[in-house]
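Re-running Protein FAM180A to confirm reproducibility after the cluster update. Everything else is unchanged from the original entry.
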Amino acid sequence: MQWWAPLIVVYLSTCLEAIQHHRKALYPNAYRIKRGTYSLINPTFQQSMKDANLLFEILLAGMQIQDEDHAILIPDEELASLRRVAKLEVICEDVLPKRLSEIRRLTAELTQRQHPLSLQDFERTVLTLVYIAQTLAQVRDQPQREAWANAVIQLFKAIQKDIMSS
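Result of re-run:
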């Protein structure tokens, strides 16, 4: 055995580890949709500028992202009845992290990230920020409130960093 063979093995295993880390999904639930519909694997709401405007209108109308047991609530009945909203419900119900531990994992991965977010991940990160802000407004326990507030700040910083790097 050559003296450099162990060095090559170490180098290749390090490269493999780096590739696997880079491919690690920020939102693993996007690939495990509970509804079982193939078309909803890795769902994305925004496919065009029209969709982005619709999402902005839905958020402006006061959309509420409920906890794990509930769907989204859109006060405007006309917006809520649109067929495109079904995909947004899947994203908010099944893809977004809802527990503080999941959100902390997400923010930790976002702070270590060197590359800009994909459009899907950016959309999900903004929607997660909306969910956290809505949750923070409802939390009364001071330690929990501080933990959720910290999550809002960390996620905002990650979004800001991504916008600045794009």
